[in-house]
Amino acid sequence: MLLIKCPFCGERNETEFVYGGPVGSDRPDANAVSDTEWVDFLTMVPNPMGPVDEKWWHARGCGKWFIVTRDTVTHHILENQDVK
CA–CA distance from 63 to each of 34, 57, 75, 78 (Å)? Predict the structure, then answer.
């Protein structure tokens, strides 16, 4: 079980949250990229090792979005910050 510290509600069980993906992975305009680039965006999930900034939504809590820096090897949460 992963414990995630919501900057608004404190530490909670991961079941209260929805993963929003890595920071910086904005959805491209499907009409502005090639078919190959679009398929790659939809199917090629980045899986870096080490610290990664991720978006999380406290869906079963305060409803706020925030950013977590999580080590993908150990799952240790290094830092939280409010989404601006």
Answer: 35, 6, 23, 22
Kind and range of the H or E run holding 40: helix 35-43
pLDDT tens column, 37-48: 999 988 987 788
Q: What is the DSSP letter of 14?
A: G
CB of 46 within 8 A of CB of 38? no
- pTM of the prediction? 0.75
The Cβ of residue 28 has, within 10 Å, a number of other Cβ atoms equal to 12
CATH class of 3-25+36-82: alpha beta
Return the structure tokens found at 76.
Answer: 């240790």
